[in-house]
Amino acid sequence: MRIHRTGVGYALDEPGTFLGSGFFIAPNWVLTCAHVVDGGEGGEVSVVYETGPGQGPSAVHGRVAATLPEHVERRMPGSWPAPDLALVRLREPVDHDCVYVSERPTAHYGEGRVFYAGWTVTGGQLQILDGFLSVQGTIGGWSAGVQMRLGQNDLPPGVSGGPVIDPVRGEVIGVLKSRADHGTGGTSTGIERLRTLQVPPDGVRTEHDDVYQAVFHAHDRYHRDRQQPSDSRRPTWADVQGDLGTRPGRTLGPDERSELLGRLADLPPPATTRGLLDLLDALPNFQFPSLMPAPRGWRDGLGMLYENARHDGELKLVLDYAMQVMCAERPATPSTLKAEQALWDWVKKASTGLDSGYRNGLVRQRAKWLGLRRRPANAQLPAPTPPGEQLPEHPQDAGPALSVLLEVLPRGWEPDRCDWSVCVARPDGDVTRLHEAERTPLDDLPAQVVAPLAEAFRRCDEPGRPAALHAALPHQLLGLAVDEWKVRPDGPPLGEQRPVVVRCSDRDQLPGDGEFGMSGPEWGEDGDEDHERLDRWRRLHARDAQAEVLDCDDGVREPVPTMDELRGLGPRTIPVLCRYGDRRYEDDGAALGRIVHAGFGVVLWRRWRSQPDAVCGEFHRGAKKVVDDGDGAAFLPDLVHRLRVDLRAGLVEAYWAHGIALLYDDPHQPLPGTGDLLEAP
Question: Are 652 and 622 in contact (CB under 8 A)?
Answer without folding.
Answer: no
